[in-house]
Structures are given as C-alpha cells and as structure tokens.
User: Which sequence fits this backbone?
C-alpha cells in the first residue's frame, strides 16, 4: 500500500510541475485572441479588432493557469499549454 501512495504522490507532483511549466504566456493568449476574432468574423480580422483586443488585454497568471481580461471581462483562459477564448455571448 505505501508503494501505491508514493507513486500517486509522484504522479500528482509531476502534474503540478507540468502545469506550472506549461502555463500559457501573455503572447500565447494574445495570439489566440487575434486568431479567434479573425475566425469568428473575417471583417473584424481585416479591421484588426482582434489585434486591438489582444493589445489591450491584461494578463493574469495564477501559477498553474492564467487568464486575460479586457475592460474587466475575462476574454481567455489558459492551462497546460492550451488557451481557450471565450465566446462574445459568454462575456456578458
């Protein structure tokens, strides 16, 4: 039984370390915001609205995860090297 506990603790520690190491950077968030806006609206992409939103976003690291905000609204959430941009309807 102690061997299983040790293995579980080691796996848990490895996951936490991986989460810290893979936490998306501010630039990863901004890149995903730009591409998501351009994908959702080609016109907005041409006008650079995604770039503007990405530029004005504020990065908030939480250690194992991170998020960005624009005007107090959470725009993107990231963890384990992945960034998810919220839908405009989710921002209300």
Assistant:
């Amino acid at each position: 039984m102690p061997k299983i506990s040790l293995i579980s603790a080691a796996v848990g520690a490895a996951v936490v370390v991986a989460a810290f190491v893979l936490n998306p950077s501010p630039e990863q968030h901004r890149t995903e915001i730009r591409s998501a806006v351009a994908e959702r609206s080609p016109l907005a992409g041409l006008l650079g609205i995604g770039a503007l939103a990405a530029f004005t976003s504020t990065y908030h690291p939480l250690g194992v995860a991170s998020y960005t905000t624009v005007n107090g609204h959470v725009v993107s959430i990231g963890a384990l090297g992945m960034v998810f941009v919220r839908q405009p309807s989710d921002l209300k």
